[in-house]
Amino acid sequence: MPSSLQPSQLPLTQPRLLSTVQRGERVQLSHITAGRRLARRLAELGLTPGVTLQVLHDNGGPMLIAVRGARLALGRGMTEKILVTTPEAQHG
Amino acid sequence: MAEYTIALAGNPNTGKTTNFNQLTGSNQHTGNWPGKTVARKEGIWRQGEDVFHIVDLPGAYSLSAFSAEEIIARDFIVENQPDAVIVVVDATNLERNLYLALQILEMTPHVVLALNMMDAARAQGLRIDLDALSQRLGVPVIPMTARTGQGMAELEQAMVQVARTGHAAKQAPATPPMRYNQRIEEALTQLAETIARHPVLGKRYRARWLALKLLQGDEPCIQKIANVPETESILTQARQQAQHALAGTSDDLDTHIAEERYTWLNRLVNDVVQGRPQGPTRSDRVDAVITHPVAGLFIFFAVMWMVFKLSTDVAAPLVDWIDSFVNDYFAHWVHQLLALGHLQESWFASLVVDGLLAGLGGILVFVPVLMFLYMGMALMEDSGYMARAAFVMDRYMRKLGLQGKSFVPLVLGFGCNVPAIYATRTLESHTDRILTGLLVPFMSCSARLPVYVLIATIFFPQNSTLVVLAMYLLGILMALIAGLMLRKTLFKRAEESAMLIEVPSYRMPTLHNVWTEMWLRTGAFLRGAGAIIMVVSMVIWLLMAIPVSGDGRFAHTPVDDSAFAHLAGGMSPAFEPLGFGNWQNSSALITGFLAKEVVVSTLAQVYHVAPEPDAQRQATSFWAQSQALVLDLGQAIWDTVRTLPSLVGIQLLPDEGASEPEALALAIRQRFEQSSHGHGALAALAFMIYVLIYSPCVATIAAQRQEFGFRWMFFSLGLQLATGWLLAFVVFQVGKVLLA
Lengths: 92, 740
Prior knowledge:
The complex is a heterodimer. Chain A is α+β, with helices and mostly antiparallel strands. Chain A has helices at 36-44, 76-79, and strands at 16-17, 26-32, 52-58, 63-67, 70-74, 82-85.
């Protein structure tokens, strides 16, 4: 578990790949396992640690997600580098 | 009178281009940014005596030097110091869009925020507190709807005001509305003080902005600074400060800064915007169908089919009209004109008619094709469909090492390779653009079809349709193989491109914008590729004019005796192992290099079975001919309109059955049997394969030069020539063994 997470964001579940998230599910971004360039790119598009995102459509690889009111299309190469957790609210 | 420079910045799909078109009308010109293949658009807006140069910066999500587009946009704002920057943002997507605005506010205080797409925001039920937004950001905020022109007057007014202030106070420090955490701010302040004291840097840059970039370790920035004398200590200080700023966290500074900006923006947007939609929007519901793995594919192919039809069948009557305009009407009158000076038999007449006019015709026939294609592209982009198409095709294109968006240029290549090359511009990554541009020529364009049809009906009368179809499939297969091989070799080290695009909400395209884009891009082709087509056309004319054998004079020599025939003859040994090595076939391949449209007519010409020129058009008065020409144009436009229903499968125009003259068929059959020593059909197959691959045409090559530079142009040409030859060789030689 990365030490940089704030207590309020502490996940109850193990981080998993965004590519495994079901359509319609809301998850919280935990961290990104890509190189610095890509991680920074994703952060600038609003994919920063702790942000809530929802998978709108899954096209067998590429995904359409909603984040910060915008819609992003992410290729498979991206969804396999983004780790997410299920937020507490859904468990409590 | 004063001159001002205004930069127009914004995310892709925010209506920035619409905004630019509204401001400048047709008063704009396009080119490339120096040394880059990124389009640069500039226009002029006037108020009284004052001239405002509006520069349309490339669309970018941020200004962190991630892509060529971002570097260009950033450098322009920092180095050229425009008097005002208009940041266009999508009012329905404020949190994401304001990120760029926030970055620009760190670079210059002279900013106007154009809050575009207010109509869509209102329709969604968003209520935006404009005064609060303006106050929090510290810049004027103008609500507007660029597609209808609403709010343009207010934007112009604000632009003038800010530009005047900006002009008077170029060096005024930026006043960013947000502060970072204490550690970062301390580091920033200290570094900025050092920079401000530096004799060069202090004058050239806004200290706080440069300090932030150096803290972030921004490579392009560091390189620029390193070239300035006495900056080593500043760079060292920056590295130390960066460590200090990060002490105690495991975060990356870039990510951390992005996070702080978004946190600030999230609070801002929550404060000033009421009624943000919580559930899926209407656009999301439409996307359930459009981006569906199965339905989405069908929709994609239907859309591509329509764009393809637009650029072929619908454009065809106009192409024919232009062809007859240049080659019959215009050529006829040039002849008459030359006759007045008793020049009609001179070499000069031949130069003008067979060289210049033929070249001009070769350029102009592309105009309708490109116009319709660009219309289709503009509709796809403006409606927001392009992003969906990329999404739907991504999983398939990934196998090729390309991303979904690359599919669009490749499909367009079936209509015409030239606009397909220009369509690679919609790809973000340089590698993707080049790789896609190298694969486009494998797509069999519509001009290659008549060659297959002619040859296939002569040699494979029973299976001609199948043979023609096989050519198309072979092209696709070759593109697949070439794509994979290039990915494994030349582009091995290039970053695997994964799709990462923002998907805009659907919106209605505007006629004004589609029209402007269509003309601008067609004009860019005429300027960019026109010269090369003209030069090649003149060279071929010259070769045909020079008599090498026989007793002809310059420009009055039978084609068999011309330098052209001898050159073609000199090339034919290269085609002997392929089974079609004679000078006539080589001639057709040389002119086919100019344009595939003329392969069939060249074959007819060199086999001496050319049809007599149309007698109808001769010897009528100027007036009667002009009348006929206008009537023909009317007919062509009417035919174009009548082909429109064919987009959805309704055929109004009768198919004109192509009937090849018997004499030509006979001659071709005989010569192919001869050159292949009795394997005519096999040689014909090899010929078709060679025509498919060897090189699309000089216009495509010119387009490649314009988009990717000379190096890649030659590489592509070599790739086509080599693979075409090898494949035709293998087919002919292996076929011979198998049939023996």
